[in-house]
Amino acid sequence: MRPILLWDVMGTLVHDPFFEEMPAFFGLSFEELLAVKHPSAWVEFERGERSEKDFLNVFFADGREFDREGFVRLVRDSYQWLPGLEELLAELQRAGCRMHAFSNYPVWYRLIEERLGLSRFIDWTFVSCLTGLRKPDSAAYAQALDVLGVAAERCVFIDDRVDNCEAARDHRIHSVVFEGVEPLRASLREAGVL
Predict the structure, then answer these.
(1) Residues 6+ apart with CB under 8 A from 42
(2) Spatial contact of 174 and 191, defined as CB atoms under 8 Å apart
(3) Is the peptide bond prior to 136 cis by the omega test (within 30 degrees of 0)?
(4) Superfamily grouping for domain 4-15+81-190
(5) pLDDT at 37
(6) Nearest to 48 by CA among 164, 136, 131
(7) What are the sequence ranges of the domains in the chain?
(8) pLDDT, position 11
């Protein structure tokens, strides 16, 4: 029986606009944006504790005004598949792999879905805005295993962040740090997925 794949989305499957496009929208560097954004609003938005409207209203710590619609449009338009990932997911789907999103992301996952149609390949099962839990919180991994109703050894977790992969390993979930599609293919072959 093939492993169940648990996919991080941003920076693993999909380009993350947080590092380049978002700061550029405001004419800021990434470091400058970090210095002026609200300190906790993004994490709260990711956990589903803030609506999009509330998040945008407090985006900047000083409450400055900005083109909210233009900002959301920029974010949506920036979503794109990382090289080779759409093809890899299609191949895994043809091979009969069950795949789920396991992502720290707000309701904007719907914008990703509208633009890229990830649900052709994966279920949006474990998105932090729906579960209220973010990686690397241990409870997020425990909940995923409980919902899936399978032993940890049946799962393979793929994420671009080492700390998230280490937390998965703490739950005995085989994890792969994403460093590009070819190294990922090699890791999936080693894990018996491909």
Answers:
(1) 55, 106
(2) yes
(3) yes
(4) HAD superfamily/HAD-like (3.40.50.1000)
(5) 97
(6) 131
(7) 4-15+81-190, 21-78
(8) 97
Block means of pLDDT (10 residues each) for the chain, 194 residues, are 94 97 98 97 98 97 96 98 98 96 98 98 98 98 98 97 98 98 96 89
Instruction: In whole angstroms, give the CA distance from residue 170 to residue 164.
Output: 10
What is the pTM assigned to this prediction? 0.95
- Pairwise CA distance, residues 100 & 118, whole Å: 10
CB 63 within 8 A of CB 54: no
DSSP string, 47-66: TTSS-HHHHHHTSBTT----
- And the tokens for 63? 């409450």
Return the HEC string of 65-115: CCCHHHHHHHHHHHCCECCCHHHHHHHHHHCCCCEEEEECCCCCHHHHHHH
Q: Residue 162 carries which side chain, given as an amino acid letter?
A: V
In whole angstroms, give the CA distance from residue 97 to residue 1.
9
Residues in the chain: 194
What pLDDT was estimated at residue 65? 96
Separation of first and last alpha carbons in the chain: 12
